[in-house]
TrEMBL record:
The keyword Lipoprotein does not apply. This is Uncharacterized protein DUF1206. It comes from the Bacteria. InterPro entries: DUF1206. It comes from Umezawaea tangerina. Keywords: Membrane, Transmembrane, Transmembrane helix. The chain crosses the membrane at residues 25-44, 64-86, 106-127, 147-170, 207-224, 244-267. Residues 23-90, 106-175, 201-269 form the DUF1206 domain. The lineage of its organism: Bacteria, Bacillati, Actinomycetota, Actinomycetes, Pseudonocardiales.
Length: 271
């Protein structure tokens, strides 16, 4: 086990892996900047694109160099996923508390899975088959689970889990704990303040989006109706129909944009 960890650490500290992972994080940030743009379109009532990360990939696909950019994005996201996977295995050694370090590693593992899924979606778009409707897939999965014995309980547990994640993400933005993972001291004073502000806005906005998804899944569990469920696209469009929705969507759009900019800074100064 010690040899395996030593080998993983050597790979993680390899300059090529570090550069590839940081470049991948830039692409991850680009998707969130595009997602902010799509969310702003939902605010203005023009929502032709799917309002989630796959919709952001669709935006890239519509450019003049769409297929080429999508392949580059896929490679970058695979590199990001590899970096996060290594961080999940042996990273965050600067965190003193074991429980907190475990939480960080679980988060890195989650980002690794997200990176792989988005990279595969980018490849599908590049091949001309599209990334699929994540909202429809969410409904189908919810319908299947609701059909199981105790299905409502299971879907409700998922909703609760998403809400807990939303709380953790929002808390991370409020308490600025994301700064623990960055070499903030290496940044100029003005840049440090900029990263602090965009990080807070980004993590809080991202957490609010997760909270809405959790509420929708919870409603689906209570009503035993998969049509009430959905992913980010469903959450944002549902919110747009509410009287206060425009304001919250604007906040979330700003949050996605802030998180994207934060990813650019984190790619440079992550420990």
């Amino acid at each position: 086990m010690g040899r395996a960890q030593s080998a993983a650490r050597e790979v993680n500290e390899n300059p090529v892996v570090q550069i590839a992972g940081r470049v991948g994080m830039v692409f991850y940030g680009i998707l969130y900047v595009l997602l902010a743009f799509i969310t702003a379109q939902v605010v203005m009532g023009d929502s032709g694109e799917q309002a989630d990360q796959k919709g952001a990939l669709g935006q890239i696909a519509e450019t003049s160099y769409g297929p080429f950019l999508l392949w580059v994005t896929a490679i970058g996201l695979f590199a990001f996923a590899l970096w996060q996977l290594l961080e999940a295995a042996i990273g965050y050694t600067w965190i003193g508390k074991e429980r907190k370090r475990l939480g960080k590693r679980v988060g890195a593992a989650s980002r690794a899975v997200t990176g792989v899924l988005l990279a595969l979606a980018a490849i599908k778009y590049a091949a001309g088959s599209g990334g699929g409707d994540s909202g429809a897939q969410q409904k189908e999965l919810t319908a299947v689970v609701l059909g199981w014995p105790g299905g409502q309980f299971l879907v409700g547990a998922v909703a609760l889990g998403v809400l807990v994640i939303a709380f953790v993400v929002i808390r991370k933005g409020v308490k600025k704990s994301f700064e623990e993972d960055l070499n903030m001291g290496e940044l100029p004073n003005g840049t440090r303040k900029f990263v602090e502000r965009t990080g807070r806005i980004g993590w809080i906005g991202k957490g609010l989006a997760y909270a809405i998804i959790g509420l929708l899944v919870g409603i689906a569990a209570v009503n035993a109706d998969p049509e009430k469920s959905g992913g980010l696209d469903k959450a944002l469009h549902t919110l747009a129909a509410e009287p206060y929705g425009v304001f919250l969507l604007a906040v979330i759009a700003l949050g996605f944009f802030g998180f994207g900019i934060y990813c650019f800074a984190a790619a440079r100064s992550h420990k």
